[in-house]
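Data availability excerpt. The first of two example chains:
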Amino acid sequence: MTEFAYAGRTLAGERVAGTRSAASVDAAVAALRGERIVVTRIETAAEPRKQRRGEAGKAVAPRILALFTRQLAVMTGAGLPLVECLDILGRQEEDPRLRATIVQVRAHVEGGESLAAAMARYPATFDALYTNMIAAGEAGGVLDAILKRLAAYIEATVRIRARVKSALTYPVAVVVISALVVGAILWKVVPTFTSLFEGLGAVLPLPTRIVIAASDGVAVAGPVLLLAAAAGALAMRRFYGTPRGRRIVDGAALRLPAVGGILRKVQVARFCRTLGTLLSSGVPILDGLEITARTSGNAVIADAVLAARGSIEAGESVAGPLEQTQVFPAMATRMISVGEATGALDAMLEKVARFYDEEVALAVGNLLTLLEPVMIAVLGVVVGGIVFAMYMPIFDLISRLGV
């Protein structure tokens, strides 16, 4: 039995509120209806209303979702009823967004919905990939195995994202710190030297005049540049929110020197892992391709997958249409072709995903090895150039005094 908090009105129009124990929401409503109460609101009393309504359905961190999925797999594999599993996980979940969503999913399951249908109500938390795999697991009676596979998929995705983010942290930090250092020198240090030179009547060489002009520009146009940068970022975000803008930006990202190749490998690994996980879970190939396109995260890849899906639906193989899109590397399509020929496409897709994960790690490591000395050298040249330019008039003054 579950405790439900309700609000409603009697037939006479009087407002009433309270709690009622029942096996499900429908049972509680039916019991109240038998007491001539028209229910206007009913919800599980275990969670505060504001928290449940304000947090339910919001996106959660992938690592938190992976942990929930693995815990649910273990509990269902142990033979616990699904409603009881959701109740236990909802009570012990620390993340308020996921906890609120679990409570709502549990209420829908108690009301007679399947787990996949209940989760599909909250697409920000449970995407199409997640819900379709759950539906396949429920239909085949292997929900615990599907949940374990789904947890492994999410964990692998988290690992590759963390690897790329950690690799990008250093160069981004160096660029930001360098910009702050150069900005501080131009804003605070250079004006001090400028006043000194004016007082001494020093002759300023060209490099010094350039640095002083840059300093004056930073002091005068700094706020304008910050506002322009903020406006540009907002405009880019809105542009990326449109289908055309997303295709243009995603396509440009894949064509970037050095970085574009890494992004392409990341997308290929994600495509192979997603499609392989869906196929091994019993999802049909055409449905799997559609789900993979929707969850790809790159508009160019999504368009290529949907184009290939149309050809596959017309009777072609999987590898051929993917190769014709000219988005997927030849090595990937050849391995997919071998997987089709041997009847082990899902296993081959997983191997391709692992291969490209390793390729991404190697490429990122090589890029960092190249970028580190280049960035340090550029920073040294910029800062050293500014310092040298500001000391040139001083050298000139010292030489005059020596004469």
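And the second chain:
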Amino acid sequence: MEQFIDQDVVIDVESQYVFLGRLVSLTPGWLTLKHADVHDLRDSKTTRELYVLDSRTDGIRVNRKEVLIPTDQIVSVSRLDDVTE
């Protein structure tokens, strides 16, 4: 995942959350995002895919300066620019 450092990424986790932001560090067991959007999908009527696609088009809706994500909860990591319709 080091190739994603300093890139805007989408992190899908096992729960109903999706994380978007700038990946700034990898440490054992944790990823750190800056200028992040922590989005609880239970709070919206959109799907995960549409929310991420909208974020790629409109920009990340920053609601956290920094967030740590435990790696054991991660299902996938991708560059925001790699998201397709």
